[in-house]
């Protein structure tokens, strides 16, 4: 995308046609026009895997992956401190223990050394997160996973077409999870997709997302059991635990249309990031998230850290808005400092007999657990990249430059 003005539609024009096809066909229990199958097949192919399993959201995807990997009561799953709560929440939903580890001080992605220090005999999986669009250091993490017989689930909710040493993010782990929530690069309002190449894991994930029906397959769009089986009175349907986490076909139709213009959507995010970068490069007291050599940042946000102690985060925001800016976000709390974890610690302390799988195994989720991210998080500025008109982007960048001048 050049510096010349360009506007792209918020919703892919083809989405209207695909939705019309779904509506014209109608809603049926065992038949469809095939949008789910097309989305699952094409997404998996685009990101270097064999199988795709569409889900109702990007948290359900990770829960299915964990269940497929056999993660359950009392097992440990390592997650980073800088992530949306969905990542450790999926672990808790499996009655497993989230082990929150610190981040690299420059990239803010999961620290390989921190992971190494926290692997125990109870560790079953790792969930490295491509935060803000930047993939983590995946090769050494995969090596640790292979050495310790762990399943690695890439959480790519914020990373569409990011790259790690020439490979698209999402193509490296045993599983990769993507989100279609409204703020994401590819969206259908909400939803997600899980991709995988292992036959056994993929089938287990399909069943985990579809009520544990025993005769499902990994074939794209295989979200129901055939009528010939289901109509029999002696048919036993469910042979494992699973949830109803399927994505409606009408949402799949929209996601498919967005997938077909994925490069255009990713290019607009990059244009936004480059506009912010031009401003930030002239400011000595803002440092951006580091993108190492050999990485391609997908820029779900353009994220910087305030270095000057005399700059109050809220003052920077209010000045930007006062000048006409759209605002920006701060980072979510370090995962282990979300109040739900303190409440869980207190509940286990109070009535350990109700939580035998957590009693004696749950870490103390408190300040000091991840000192690197705890020191950085309050000073984070996450600048928006979900614009669809380059004129709007350039105007926001100019207003942010004016904002920084006020603090010079």
Structure, explained:
The protein has two domains: 13-261, Aspartate Aminotransferase, domain 2 (3-Layer(aba) Sandwich); 263-333 and 370-406, Aspartate Aminotransferase, domain 1 (Alpha-Beta Complex), CATH 3.90.1150.10. The strands form three sheets. The chain has a seven-stranded mixed sheet with strand order 1-9-8-5-4-2-3, with helices on both faces. Strand 2 (76-80), helix 4 and strand 3 form a beta-alpha-beta unit. With 408 residues, the chain is of the alpha/beta class. It is built from 14 helices and 13 strands.
Which features does this protein show?
globular, 14 helices, three-stranded antiparallel β-sheet, Aspartate Aminotransferase, domain 1, 408 residues, 2 domains, Aspartate Aminotransferase, domain 2, alpha/beta, seven-stranded mixed β-sheet
Produce the secondary structure layout.
Elements: H1 13-25, H2 35-46, E1 51-55, H3 60-68, E2 76-80, H4 86-93, E3 97-101, H5 112-118, E4 123-126, H6 138-147, E5 151-155, E6 163-164, E7 167-168, E8 175-179, E9 192-196, H7 199-208, H8 227-230, H9 249-259, H10 262-280, E10 286-288, E11 295-296, E12 301-306, H11 313-322, H12 339-350, H13 371-376, E13 380-384, H14 390-406
Parallel strand pairs: 2-3, 2-4, 4-5, 5-8
Antiparallel strand pairs: 1-9, 6-7, 6-11, 8-9, 10-12, 12-13
């Amino acid at each position: 995308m050049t510096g010349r003005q360009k506007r792209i539609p918020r919703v892919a024009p083809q989405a209207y046609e695909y939705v019309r096809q779904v509506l014209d066909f109608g809603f049926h229990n065992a038949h469809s026009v095939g949008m789910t199958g097309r989305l699952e097949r094409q997404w998996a192919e685009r990101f270097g895997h064999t199988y795709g399993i569409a889900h109702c959201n990007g948290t359900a995807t990770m829960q299915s992956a964990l269940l497929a990997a056999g993660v359950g009561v009392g097992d440990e799953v390592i997650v980073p401190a800088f992530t949306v709560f969905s990542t450790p929440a999926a672990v808790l939903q499996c009655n497993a223990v989230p082990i929150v580890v610190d981040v690299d001080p420059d990239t803010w992605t999961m620290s390989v050394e921190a992971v190494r220090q926290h692997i125990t005999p109870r560790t079953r999986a790792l969930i490295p997160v491509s935060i803000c669009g930047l993939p983590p250091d995946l090769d050494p993490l995969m090596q640790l996973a292979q050495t310790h017989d762990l399943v690695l689930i890439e959480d790519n909710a914020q990373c569409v077409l990011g790259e790690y040493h020439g490979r698209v993010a999402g193509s490296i782990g045993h599983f990769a999870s993507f989100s279609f929530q409204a703020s994401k690069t590819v969206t259908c309002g909400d939803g997600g997709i899980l991709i995988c190449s292992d036959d056994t894991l993929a089938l287990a994930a399909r069943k985990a997302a579809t009520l544990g029906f025993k005769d499902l397959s990994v074939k794209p769009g295989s979200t129901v059991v055939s009528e010939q089986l289901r109509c029999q009175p002696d048919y036993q349907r469910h042979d494992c635990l699973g949830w109803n986490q399927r994505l409606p076909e009408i949402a799949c139709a929209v996601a498919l249309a967005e997938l077909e213009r994925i490069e255009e959507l990713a290019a607009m995010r990059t244009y936004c990031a480059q506009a912010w970068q031009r401003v930030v490069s002239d400011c000595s007291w803002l440092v951006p998230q580091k993108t190492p050599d050999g990485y391609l940042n997908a820029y779900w946000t353009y994220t910087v850290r305030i270095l000057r102690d005399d700059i109050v985060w809220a003052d920077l925001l209010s000045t930007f808005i006062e000048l006409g800016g759209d605002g920006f976000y701060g980072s979510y709390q370090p995962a282990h400092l979300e109040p739900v974890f303190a409440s869980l610690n207190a509940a286990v302390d109070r009535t350990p007999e109700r939580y035998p799988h957590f009693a004696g195994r749950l870490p103390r989720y408190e300040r000091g657990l991840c000192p690197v991210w705890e020191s950085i998080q309050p000073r984070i500025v996450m600048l928006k990249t979900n614009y669809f008109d380059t004129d709007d982007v350039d105007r926001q960048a100019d207003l942010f430059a004016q904002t920084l001048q006020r603090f010079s």
